[in-house]
Design goal:
The protein is built from no helices and ten strands. Strand 4 and strand 5 form a beta hairpin. It is globular, with a radius of gyration of 13 Å. By secondary structure, the protein is mainly β. It has a six-stranded mixed β-sheet, with no helix packed on it.
Amino acid sequence: QVQLVESGGGLVQPGGSLRISCATSGFTFSTDYMSWVRQAPGKGLEWVSSINSGSSRTFYTDSVKGRFTISRDNAKDTLYLQMNNLKPEDTALYYCARGYSRTWSRASYWGQGTQVTVSS
């Protein structure tokens, strides 16, 4: 079955950087769009970024453009999100998701997410 396992989150000061990862299995990763979605405390799911199968097209929500970079390694079935110049408003639980959409509902196959906390 489809499995998504996020990792790499943590506590970072404003202006700092983190790279989070999503290890996948149970589907043909190399042929699917992939996305990152986040949920801040007390708020709904927010689409962050998406990437096509061949990494030639990437998409970002306005609030992270120029700061975040999505990438993937199809040989390792792994998705990444490099986050630079982090801000307190980036604090959230980050999920990876299969496909491309700008609106999301949590799917049963999603992982537990990885917590990113930006605070001094």
